[in-house]
Design goal:
The complex is a heterodimer of chains A (about 350) and B (about 270).
Chain A: H1 7-23, H2 31-36, H3 40-48, H4 52-60, H5 68-99, E1 106-108, H6 109-116, E2 129-132, H7 138-147, E3 151-153, E4 156-162, E5 165-170, E6 193-195, E7 203-205, H8 207-220, H9 226-237, H10 249-263, H11 282-295, H12 301-307, H13 312-323, H14 327-334, H15 340-358
Parallel strand pairs in A: 2-5
Antiparallel strand pairs in A: 1-2, 3-4, 4-5, 6-7
Helix pairs in contact in A: 1-9, 4-5, 6-8, 8-9, 8-10, 10-11, 11-12, 11-15, 12-13
Chain B: E1 5-10, E2 13-19, H1 22-31, E3 36-37, E4 44-50, E5 62-65, E6 71-75, E7 78-83, E8 86-91, H2 95-112, E9 116-125, E10 128-133, H3 140-146, E11 151-154, E12 157-162, E13 168-171, E14 189-199, E15 205-208, H4 211-221, H5 229-245, E16 247-253, H6 257-269
Helix pairs in contact in B: 4-5
Classes of the chains: A alpha+beta (about 350), B alpha+beta (about 270).
Chain lengths: ~350, ~270
């Protein structure tokens, strides 16, 4: 029996994909989508998916698009995103001399992407500042943050807050500090960083690492928010995926993420022909794409990553240690969403996959 | 012969104007009564010339910083230019043209001296002030009317700056809205809270807001003319500093004096 998604889900999905496609510059925003922006529920969905700030520059290109209630809403979202970015940049500049004294501090995710691909008049919603510390300078950075009025999230000293701004510290690029078996899917070649132009004194990932990390981050969260699809699509359009070797873990991450965009109709076979995808791990990548398509929740990301391990034994080990990890690790990673619901979601997605294989 | 001067000090920023016309001088004295000083070290001295020509098309204000550091301000009824602390202004002989000029000059001077001019109402109580920022129609004058009896600093335009030990302070201005001319408040009051106004039909309550929203709300109500990067940066930094130091909330209010007053008194006690 095939499952038919409810009409509201289809509408939501369509408008999200339409906005992603329009923001990436592939197609203009359709008139139908523009009309739907008047719906408060649609605005909320776009906001939850991190796309609301990106809509305003699209609306200003429409005749009389800058007027009306919807335009006002998206304008305020756009302004808030720009202000948030500026506040983050100011805060990093203020802490520069102390934070960067003990080693390199690499800005990842939102702020790095803002520098790389989301130049004004574009704007990307960010929730926190992700800092990667490659030189074992975690202790020193934590001390500086504590001295400068930041407070940690309870005993968990990777998240730091001050006046509504949040810093998320990462001591490994692919999360091996939390889930050691992430090393099975960690690309071996990508560790390149370059000095940041936006925030002097800090570093950002080079093009290849930025692309790989965006693909990894999207897969890790099962592309639960549309903005992660947009990141990958924008990086693909910029040609940042070109330097990634096909056979390694990076190739599998790339093939799975871009394949998923093809499934969603955001990339067509001319842009990403099947010949470019990873043939050696084709079945694993197909399974991962299936999980993404029918999971589409934060929780299925680890299942997808398990599928992308290079051998069956590794997949099993990853399942045991990372897909169903210890409770404290789950709490750190998913906070209040780490209850039995997450296990249920993962088991259900696995059962669906098994059924699919049997058929 | 040098024209007689008048010094107008708003928000601690004295500006001297040499005005040749006795009639205009009388009007200015009457309009800014309470803000006129006999002598002060002025931020800026402007020599005024009056003419009935149109200085530029449309009502838009054009503010620009010229390469040498001079400022140029133009509107259909005035044209002003200054460098350092001295300059000249040509304007239509009307108190409204002078009022418009003074607002723009003050906003430029404020940004240069770490203050911001803001579209907001402000009320004082027990040596502390509450600021209600909002664009036209957001309910600034309504709230002032509801809080009758408290010390109304202004219902349209106030100045925010930093005093001793980094304390955020509020100054009233002579630029009133629908309330017309109100009492003169030349000294600053410490700012207790910034309350963004939201009209409600059924209830009055106060909500905490995200710091990013607070900065965005302050910036939306700031009077910034022109596109000078330095000026915009200064205003942004002041706005984020105010949002960081002062409690910023949203006041959802219905037109009921008792409930609004109760919420403000509750905030006074916190």
């Amino acid at each position: 029996m095939s499952e038919t998604p409810s009409p509201s889900l289809i509408v939501n999905n369509n408008i999200l994909l339409d906005v992603v496609s329009a923001v990436s510059g592939s197609t203009p925003l359709s008139h139908k989508s523009i009309r739907e922006l008047d719906d408060l529920r649609i605005r909320q969905i776009l906001e939850n998916n991190g796309l609301a700030p990106s809509v305003y520059p699209l609306l200003t290109r429409q005749p009389a698009g800058g007027d009306g209630d919807a335009a006002r809403f998206f304008k305020s979202q756009y302004e808030n995103a720009l202000i948030h970015k500026d506040l983050c940049v100011n805060m990093l500049c203020e802490l520069k001399s102390r934070l960067c004294a003990g080693g390199r501090v690499v800005i990842m995710q939102g702020l790095a992407l803002a520098e790389n691909i989301y130049h004004e008049p574009m704007s990307r919603q960010m929730s926190d500042i992700d800092l990667y510390l490659p030189d074992n300078n975690g202790l020193q950075v934590r001390r500086v943050l504590a001295e400068n009025g930041f407070s940690s999230y309870g005993s968990y000293t990777n998240l730091w807050y001050r006046q509504g701004l949040c810093i998320d510290l990462h001591e490994s690029l692919w999360g091996e500090d939390r889930l050691p078996y992430r090393r099975y899917i960690a690309p071996s070649m990508a560790s390149g960083v370059k000095p940041s132009g936006l925030v002097d004194g800090y570093y950002i990932p080079d093009n290849t690492l930025a692309a790989l990390h965006a693909a990894f981050h999207g897969l890790k969260h099962g592309f639960a928010r549309a903005v992660w699809m947009l990141d990958v699509l924008m990086l693909w359009n910029k040609g940042y995926f070109k330097g990634i070797e096909k056979d390694g873990a990076g190739g599998r991450l790339q093939a799975c993420a871009l394949g998923y965009l093809c499934d969603k109709g955001l990339l067509n076979s001319d842009a990403y022909p099947p010949s470019q995808s990873n043939k050696r791990y084709g079945k694993r990548i197909t399974a991962a794409r299936y999980l993404l398509r029918y999971g589409e929740r934060d929780g299925v990301g680890e299942l997808v990553l398990a599928m992308l391990c290079s051998t069956c034994i590794r997949t099993v080990v990853y399942f045991l240690h990372s897909v169903f990890p210890a409770k404290d690790v789950l709490m750190q990673m998913y906070g209040k969403h780490s209850g039995p619901g997450l296990y249920f979601l993962r088991i259900r997605a696995l059962c669906r996959l098994c059924l699919r294989v049997v058929r | 012969m040098k024209s007689p001067s008048i010094i107008i000090a708003i928000a601690g920023m004295p500006v001297a104007f040499s005005v040749g016309s006795q009639r205009m001088l009388r009007q200015i004295r009457a309009r800014y009564r309470g803000y006129v000083l006999r002598s002060a070290e002025c931020f800026l001295s402007l020599e005024c010339f009056f003419g009935r020509e149109s200085f530029c098309k449309g009502e838009d204000i054009q503010v620009s910083r010229l390469p040498g550091g001079a400022w140029s301000i133009r509107r259909n009824n005035f044209e002003c230019r200054w460098e350092g602390t001295r300059g000249t202004v040509r304007l239509y002989p009307s108190i409204y043209a002078f009022d418009g000029l003074l607002r723009v000059v003050l906003s430029v001077l404020a940004a240069g001296s770490g203050k911001i001019i803001m579209h907001a109402a402000a009320v004082g109580r027990k040596n502390q002030a509450f600021v209600f920022p909002g664009v036209s129609g957001s309910g600034k004058t309504t709230v002032c009317r509801l809080l009758k009896g408290m010390r109304i600093l202004n219902d349209e335009l106030v100045c925010l700056g930093f005093g001793k030990r980094g304390r955020v302070e509020v100054w009233g201005t002579p630029f009133w809205g629908e309330l017309g001319n109100g009492p003169v408040h030349r000294s600053a009051l410490p700012l207790r809270a910034v309350l963004f106004l939201k009209k409600e039909k059924a209830a009055t309550f106060v909500r905490n807001i995200d710091p990013v929203e607070a900065v965005a709300g302050i910036l939306r109500c700031c009077c910034v003319f022109g596109t000078d990067q330095e000026q915009i940066k200064s205003v942004f930094e002041r706005a984020s500093a105010i949002a960081a130091k002062v409690s910023c909330r949203s006041l959802h209010f219905q037109k009921d004096a008792q409930t609004v007053r109760r919420e403000i008194l509750r905030l006074c006690r916190i």
